[in-house]
Design a protein that fits this description.
CATH topology of the largest domain: Serine Threonine Protein Phosphatase 5, Tetratricopeptide repeat
Strand order of the largest sheet: 8-9-10-7-11
Number of helices: 49
Helix content: 55-70%
Organism: Actinomycetospora succinea
Shape: globular
Keywords: DNA-binding, Transcription, Transcription regulation
Protein name: Tetratricopeptide repeat protein
CATH architecture of the largest domain: Alpha Horseshoe
Family: Belongs to the AfsR/DnrI/RedD regulatory family.
Radius of gyration: 37 Å
InterPro entries: AAA_16, AfsR-DnrI-RedD_regulator, BTAD, OmpR/PhoB-type_DNA-bd, P-loop_NTPase, Sig_transdc_resp-reg_C-effctor, TPR-like_helical_dom_sf, WH-like_DNA-bd_sf
Number of strands: 14
CATH class of the largest domain: Mainly Alpha
Strand content: 5-15%
CATH superfamily of the largest domain: Tetratricopeptide repeat domain
Length: 1030
């Protein structure tokens, strides 16, 4: 690892990123290091050093004294920080040792080149970095003003002057007149005869729209030069002044001498590098971006990304990079943690404490919702890039989990002012889904093979130009194949390899058996080689593994990446894995599964490769459940599919059934209900084969869940399954299962308008849940909440939600949380606090987006329209209602779509659009089906009753009225309660009776509703109901 010697300000030595200050030791050691740094790259003899160190009073053996100091510095810092022996010493050279003044000079050269190449953002970034390096003060204030110290200070002053000029020029090029004025003014203050600084400040005043200040500045300079030096301003300065008076642009730049931008080392990619340079320049100027480098494996994506990373570092930017690993898809935002962890400082915002636990503060939120995490990361990146732009490189995006892709989408749309360029590499075939999600918000850059000229140039650089055409023909320009072929040719005694596999194996075997053993074990682990895991795999000490890794890295078969190593390319990894004997691979995989047990996806992958199918199935099931809990249902389904294949190979009916139940939940979240139902039928069969009563109970719970409802299975059948499951729970004494089953029975009874039964089941579910634990209590409270919500029992509802919502956030369980938040809007609706109600429903929709159950948002959207109608905002209500129907379509849930139809139809009736209201209600009734729950049928029938007969199609109005009236009369509820959430249906039925001259019957219909509304504080509803019947 390189070290940086900082001469600007007090002498310091730093290492790593973020920089770690190293202890320097005694004053003599500090002075020795400062002297060699100031006199770099000169070699100083022991006598010369002793003369400076001891001021002419050197010890009896000065050379020995100097050697002792050098030895101490080497042991305390880095062995290569000081080179030489008693014959002479010098400071180590880059990249091992970097001096801040040299780095500043390099950055200023780069700034000049980038400005000349019309990249003012990069020029500004490089100049700003140079200013930060130089801005810590005059070098070595602790030293007397001796010649070598004075020389270092003169060098610093000249660099600081250049840096201010460069920064002002870049700011002018970027159109940032404020920054240009500030920096140029600093330069003028430092040297009032600096004409370049004056010209830059004049141009900055002019760009800021204050030419008079520029003229005034010129006259002050002219007067000072004439009075004190007896000279006129330089011709360039006079020309700038004349341009001001003539209101024409200046004739040229305010002095810069720039060499051309160095040619890229990435052969054949000039066009791509030019485009990526433009995007990095834009990011440095404040326009963030996302670029997707796409192409097949080995096409050069990572190499090109590395070139851009070098550009970013060279122009004063920060670089954060990580690789996405397939075995870590279930770990939330792991690639971002790997990339940003090394560049962040504590403390991070509370919402990020779960990602960066070492940087969090006590009391932080370890379970923040993904959207809060995304927003916190965006804000963090804005803070991080306030002083320097950031290049965030994510390699192998095809291996990333859904959350990582969603975060990139979020950052692309909401950069929050961050100066960030996100650069990803992705295999086009395997990453098609990620590309599809990000194509609309990012720029895709497809990489193809190299042309013949590029391959010939590579061959020429390897000393084999004569083989360029042959290599191009054999490899078709595939960069990885080209490079590996040329590397094989460069090995002593080797000719042209017969195959790339042979070339890779030859390079491996030249390193000896020990390194080959490590590399083959590492190939089993995956693309990344963790020394600690590899040590466990081979049962060797970690230092021995690290030594072997370093030998492989020196041969460019491995690359160091922080705490781990990665294979230099996919070809090396794949060849080593394929040529490792199968029995050895199996043993390694089995051991890796033990070592990685804490990472279920990795453990399951290795167990499957070792053909330990029962273990693989259970580990992958656990990984899928982890993904489902964070709402990544696509990842969960994939992991459950792999778990199912393992369970079937194991012939284990119990684990097969559990996997099928879990996958049905994932598919339910993905709104693929037919497939979810198929899984449940398979799970039921597996439970019978296994004779596992607990598994059977879990299956029965899901057979009474939302999947059959969505497919139109009669609710009565669902109730039968749930009651059978309840008997199993009682026989097993399983209070947790009882809470879950009773909670679901409460929800079904609620929707069938049997509120007395619903409240009873809900209360018994809560009691069972309190005996069993938090998860059981959660589902019990959820069932009771539904009963209280539909009946509008606000006090009881508030009490349940006050306990349920914090519990759902803590566990966390977003599937339950979304409903707790939504139904928590009812007290505000009852009191007419519309803005508060809208905020709660909008929050429920936000939770839904990350719950994995996206179809539920149609229900919430339809109720936003319901709230808008109660406010009298009918146009907004219609818009929300139409969007809800568009979201679900006719294939949606058999509760969501009919309810959405009825709510929108009621709004259309209020606008006098009777024909469309009738069509919508007919549609909802047909979708609900004859066996639907009473709530859905009553809503649709009530609209048809009020709308009257139209063209004769659909259910006759009189028939609809009688059936709706029967359903409402059949509502069972405790005293002074009613179906308050179904007020629309009551009102429509009452109006239908009034239209037929039956006012007494209309009052009778509304009476229980009006009583309940007054009893439970639904003031707004009570006022509306009192106006329905005169």
């Amino acid at each position: 690892m390189s070290v940086t010697v900082r001469l600007a300000g007090p002498l310091r030595v730093e290492r790593g990123s973020p920089p770690e200050a190293l202890r320097l030791g005694s004053p003599k050691e500090r002075r020795l290091l400062a002297l060699l740094a100031a006199r770099r790259p000169a070699v100083l003899t022991g006598e010369q050093l002793a003369a400076e160190l001891w001021n002419g009073d050197a010890p009896r053996s000065p050379a020995a004294g100097v050697a002792t100091l050098v030895s101490r510095l080497r042991s305390r810092l880095e062995p290569d920080i000081l080179l030489g022996d008693r014959g002479g010493y010098r400071l180590g050279a880059p990249p091992t040792v970097v001096v801040d003044l040299d780095e500043a000079a390099r950055l200023l050269d780069e700034s000049d080149r980038r400005l000349a190449a019309a990249a003012p953002g990069l020029a500004a970034s490089a100049a700003a970095r140079a200013l930060r390096l130089l801005g810590t003060g005059e070098p070595l204030p602790e030293e007397a003003d001796e010649p070598w110290v004075a020389a270092a200070r003169d060098e610093w002053r000249e660099l600081l002057r250049r840096a201010r000029h460069a920064d002002a020029r870049a700011a002018l090029g970027s159109g940032d007149a404020t920054r240009a004025r500030r920096t140029a003014a600093d330069a003028v203050a430092a040297d009032r005869f600096d004409e370049t600084a004056h010209r830059l400040l004049m141009r900055a005043h002019r760009q800021a729209g204050e030419p008079s200040r520029a003229v005034e500045l010129y006259h002050r300079l002219r007067t000072a030069l004439a009075d004190e030096l007896g000279v006129e301003p330089a011709p360039e300065t006079r020309d700038d002044h004349l341009a001001l008076l003539q209101e024409r642009p200046p004739t040229g730049p305010a002095a810069t001498t720039a060499r051309p931008v160095p040619a890229s080392h990435c052969v054949g990619r000039d066009a791509e590098i030019a485009r990526l340079t433009e995007r990095w320049d834009a990011a440095a100027r404040g326009t963030s971006g996302l670029v997707l480098l796409a192409g097949e494996a080995g096409i050069g994506k990572t190499r090109l990304a590395g070139e851009v990373a070098g550009l970013a570092a060279a122009t004063g930017g920060r670089v954060a990079a990580a690789r996405c690993h397939g075995a870590e898809r279930s770990l939330f935002l792991q690639p971002l943690v790997d990339a940003l962890g090394p560049v962040l400082a504590a403390p991070v915002p509370p919402a990020l404490a779960g990602l960066f636990p070492d940087l969090g503060s006590p009391g932080s939120d370890d379970h923040a919702e993904p959207r809060r995490v995304f927003a916190a990361l965006a804000a963090l990146l804005a803070d991080l890039t306030a002083t320097a732009p950031l290049l965030l490189v994510l390699d192998d995006l095809q291996n990333a989990g859904l959350a990582t892709v969603e975060l990139l989408h979020f950052l692309a749309l909401r950069p929050a002012g961050a100066r960030v360029l996100v650069l990803t590499t992705v295999r086009a075939e395997e990453g098609a889904e990620a590309l599809a999600q990000l194509d609309t918000v990012g720029e895709r850059l497809d990489l193809g093979p190299l042309d013949a000229a590029a391959v010939t140039l590579l061959a020429e650089r390897a000393g084999r130009r004569d083989l360029g055409a042959t290599i191009h023909r054999r490899t078709r320009g595939h960069p990885l194949f080209v490079v590996e072929t040329l590397r094989g040719l460069a090995a002593p005694g080797s000719g042209v390899p017969e195959s790339l596999q042979a070339a890779v194996l030859a390079r491996v075997r030249r390193l000896g058996d020990e390194v080959e053993e490590l590399l083959r074990a590492g190939a089993v682990l995956g693309a990344a080689v963790d020394p600690e895991v590899a040590a466990g795999l081979l049962e060797l000490p970690v230092p021995e593994i690290a030594r072997r890794c370093e030998r492989a890295a020196a041969a460019r078969l491995l690359l160091p990446t922080g705490a781990t190593y990665e294979f230099a390319n996919d070809l090396v990894h794949e060849v080593l894995y394929a040529t490792t004997p199968a029995p050895v691979r199996r043993l390694h995989h089995r051991r890796a599964a033990d070592l990685l047990a804490g990472t279920p996806e990795s453990a399951g992958t290795h167990a499957a490769a070792a053909q330990d199918w029962p273990r693989a199935a259970r580990a992958l099931l656990l990984a899928g459940e982890t993904a489902a809990r964070r709402g990544a249902m696509g990842d969960a389904e994939s992991l459950h599919g792999r778990a199912l294949a393992a369970a079937e190979r194991a012939g284990d009916h119990e684990i097969t059934g559990r996997v099928l139940v879990a996958r049905s939940r994932a598919r339910e979240g993905l709104e693929r209900h037919e497939e979810a139902w198929s899984d449940l039928r398979g799970a039921a069969a597996a439970a019978r084969e296994a004779g596992d009563r607990r598994l059977e109970m879990a299956v029965l719970r899901q057979l009474g869940g939302d999947v059959p409802i969505a497919l139109g299975v009669p609710p009565a059948e669902c109730v039968t399954h749930l009651r059978t499951g309840l008997r199993r729970a009682a026989s097993l004494g399983d209070r947790g299962a009882e809470a879950d089953l009773r909670g679901r029975l409460a929800i079904l009874a609620t929707n069938d308008l049997r509120f007395g039964e619903a409240i009873d089941q809900g209360r018994r579910a809560v009691a069972a849940g309190r005996d069993a634990g938090d998860h059981a209590l959660l589902v019990g409270l959820d069932g009771l909440k539904a009963a209280y919500a539909y009946t509008g029992m606000l006090d009881e509802l508030a009490e349940v939600i006050d306990e349920l919502e914090p519990l759902a956030r803590r566990l966390p369980d977003r599937a339950v949380l979304q409903w707790a938040v939504f139904e928590g809007s009812f007290p505000a609706i009852a009191a007419g606090r519309w803005d508060e109600a809208r905020e709660r429903i909008a929050e429920a929709m936000a939770v839904t987006r990350h719950s994995g159950f996206g179809g539920h948002d149609a229900w919430f959207l339809a109720h936003l329209g319901w709230v808008a109608r109660q406010q009298g905002q009918l146009d907004e209500a219609v818009d929300a209602g139409r969007r809800a129907l568009l979201r679900n379509g006719d294939a949606g849930h058999r509760w969501w779509t009919p309810t959405s139809c009825a709510l929108l139809a009621t709004t259309l009736l209020a606008r006098g659009e009777v024909a469309e209201a009738r069509l919508l209600a007919d549609r909802g009734l047909a979708l609900a089906g004859p066996d639907a729950v009473a709530a859905c049928r009553a809503r649709c029938l009530a609209v048809l009753a009020e709308a009257g007969d139209g063209d004769g199609a659909g259910v006759p109005a009189d028939t609809a009225l009688l059936e709706a009236d029967r359903l409402l009369s059949g509502v069972t509820a405790p005293p002074a309660t009613a179906w308050l959430l179904g007020a629309d249906a009551y009102v429509s039925v009452a109006r239908a009776w009034m239209a037929r001259g039956r006012e007494a019957r209309a009052r009778e219909t509304l009476a229980p509703l009006l009583t309940a509304a007054r009893a439970h504080g639904w003031r707004h509803l009570a006022e509306d109901l009192s106006r329905v019947v005169p």
